[in-house]
Please model this.
Amino acid sequence: MNNADIISGAGVLLILAAFFLSTFNLLKEKSKVFFILNLFGGALACWGSILIHSIPFTILEGTWAVVAFIGLMKRK
Model:
């Protein structure tokens, strides 16, 4: 396992945790924690995608992080 796998794996784990928790009503989809998990998860997964030079996933995860950041800012 290399650094890109560890970084991306951590990001995906955060995104999946937010999805799991919201699916089972343990976390509200508009909560601060939900947006923070998605923001950091997307950012880490984006970084990992950059390290492996995967442009489609860099775009996907970068967009994921930006949208989560916007959601977090709108929440305030």
Observations:
- The mean pLDDT is 97.
- Residues 3-75 form one domain.
